[in-house]
Description:
410 residues; mainly beta; Pectate Lyase C-like; 22-stranded parallel β-sheet; eleven-stranded parallel β-sheet; 2% helix; 36% strand; disordered N terminus
Amino acid sequence: MKRQNIVTVGIFFLAVYFVQDIWGFTGPQLIDVDTSGATIIKTVCSTGCDYDSLSAAASAAQAGWRIRVKAGTYSGFDWPSSRSGTANNPIVVEAYEDGKVYINGGMQFNGEYIIVDGKGFSSPQIVFDGKGLSDRTIIFGYDHGAAGNHITLYRSEITGGLFSAIVTQSNYNKIYNCLIHDTGTSHAIYLSNCAYCEVKNNIIRTFGKNGIQSNPHDSNNKILDTDISGNAIYDCGENGLTVLSGTGLNGLLDGLTITNNLIWGCSQNAMRFTGSGDYVGIIKNVSVYGNTFYGSIDNNHGVNGKDATTKFKNNIVTGSVNNTGGFIEYSNNVIGLTSCLASTASSSSDFLKLKSGASCINAGATGLGLAMDYFGNTRDSQPDIGAHEYGGGAPPDTTLPAAPKGVTVR
C-alpha cells in the first residue's frame, strides 16, 4: 500500500505528562559494544586494588587495559591525552558490578580510544554526577578535535552540569544506551564540534533547555556526518532536538541524520531548526526520517539567504509544522493527528506505537535506509510512518528441519 499521506490540522491536542516516573514506555534497544580488545585487568578501589583512585589508574593506563572500578565514590579529573588506546586495543573503564560507582565533579576525556561501560541500562552502575557544577559534567576533548577522539560512553548515567551534561569538542565519539537526566539550565547533550559521531538509543530527560543541541558555534567548528537515532527525549525545558547553524562565520553543519527518535513533553517544540539572527554558519544535508514527535516542529533555517537543505519524511508530528525555512524534500508525513497512535499515555507499553489498522502503516517513503525502528523491529520493504514499524520483526525461519536419524518405522 503506497500513498502520499500528508495531513495538516490546525488544532493541536496537547497532553500533560507526569514525566518524572513514566517507565511504562518501552525503552530503546541495547546496542552491543565490543570491549574484547582490552585484556589486561587492573582494579580500582579505596584499598587492596591496583590503584586507589580512578585518576591514578587513568594516568598509568595503556592500550589494552581493562580498568574495573569497584563500588564507591571517586573524584572527577581530566583524562590525560598521553594515555590512549588504539582501535583494536582500547582502554576500557567498566563497573566491577559490586555496586554503584559515583564519579563526582566534571570529567574531561583527552585521551583516545576509550570505552566507558557502566554495565547497566535501566540502572547503570557508573554514575557521572555533576550536580552543583557551574559548567559541564563530561567534556569530550578540547580545541575542536585536537584530542578526545574515539570515546564511547556506554550504559552509563550522567546527571547535573549547569550548562550541560555532555559536550563534544572532538570526533568519532559515541554515546550509546545512556541515561542522561536532570541537567541545569541548558542542554543534556551539546554537539559543538563532532565529525562522524553517534548519539544512539539513549534516554534523555528533564533538562533546562534542549535535549540534544547541534551547534558548531565557533569559527571553523564542524559537525559532519553525525547520527542521532533511537533516542527517547522528554521533559524538555525548551526543545527536544535543536539544530543550529552556529554563530561562527566558518561554522559548518554538513550531514546530520535524525531517525527513529521518540520525543515528547517539550515546553516549546519537539524539534527546532534555525539559521536566523546571529546564526551565520551553514546547515547542509540534514535528513529527518521515521521519527515520532509528540509536539511541534519549527523550521526557519532556510531564511536570511541560506539554502533549505533538510529532508523531512516518514515522520509523525502530532502538533504543527512552522516551515518558514523550507524543506527540499517533504513527504509521507502525518501532521497534526494522534489517530495513528495506539496510546498517548506514557505509562503504557503501547505509548507512541502504531495501532492496528492505522493509516500510517505501510504508508512511508522507501529508499531512506531505515532498516530498523526505535524498538529494534526490522522494517519491511514498505515502511510505516513514525518511529514504530507495526508488527515488524525478523522474517520467520523457513529452513526445512533436518531429516531425523536413527528412527525405525514400524
